[in-house]
Amino acid sequence: MKADIRFASEGFNHIVFKSSRTERERSSQLLRFNLLPKAVKLLQISTTYQEFEERYQEIEVMSYKNKIMKTKIVHYWGIIGIIDNRKIKVIIRRIGENGALYFWSIIPAWITNKYRDTKFYTTMKGDPRID
Q1: Residue 33 predicted with pLDDT over 90
Q2: Any long-range contacts for 45-51 (C-beta under 8 Å, 24+ apart)?
Q3: Cα(26)–Cα(41) distance, rounded to whole angstroms?
Q4: Within 10 Å of residue 25's Cβ, how many Cβ atoms?
Q5: Can you give the pLDDT at residue 111?
Q6: Around Cβ 38, how many Cβ atoms within 10 Å?
Q7: Strand partners for 108
Q8: pTM of the model
């Protein structure tokens, strides 16, 4: 994606915490922080995204110096790649239609169990090294 992606505290908090009060395992946190340079490299060289999702969520916003919960549309993009022999997925998030793009998460090599993510090699025709 050729866009300005900001790295802010919310993304780093998401690396440390699963939810508002549940901390990730230390080994998972260290792994994700060690993969951040690879995430930056992936974002710099990537020209497209592989996953997209949008949903309405309750988001905490400031209104007249008070924090309130407000329903907003949130967009997520997943960018997948192999950087330096490491498979990673980087999640980018945008709140609202005109909001800025923010780094949200990095996911190290994962196992897929969804039907839409499976590959059917038996239906491939031709030689992928040439095509």
Answers
A1: yes
A2: 45/81, 46/1, 46/79, 46/81, 47/1, 47/2, 48/1, 49/1, 49/77, 49/78, 49/79, 49/92, 50/78, 50/79, 50/80, 51/76, 51/77, 51/78, 51/80, 51/89
A3: 24
A4: 9
A5: 57
A6: 19
A7: none
A8: 0.75
Residue indicated by tokens 């031709």 = 126
- Give tens-digit pLDDT for 48-94: 888 899 999 888 888 898 999 999 999 999 999 988 888 999 999 99
| Reported confidence tier of residue 127, pLDDT bands at 50, 70, 90 | very low
Query: Residue 117 has what DSSP assignment?
Result: G
The dihedral built from the CA positions of residue 112, 86, 32 and 12, taken in this order, carries a sign that is negative
Looking at beta carbons, which pairs linking 95-98 to residues 24 or more positions away fall under 8 Å? Answer: 95/59, 96/72, 97/73
Q: Considering only CA atoms, which of 42, 99, 47 is closest in space to residue 72?
A: 99
Helix (H, G, I), strand (E, B) or coil at 13: helix
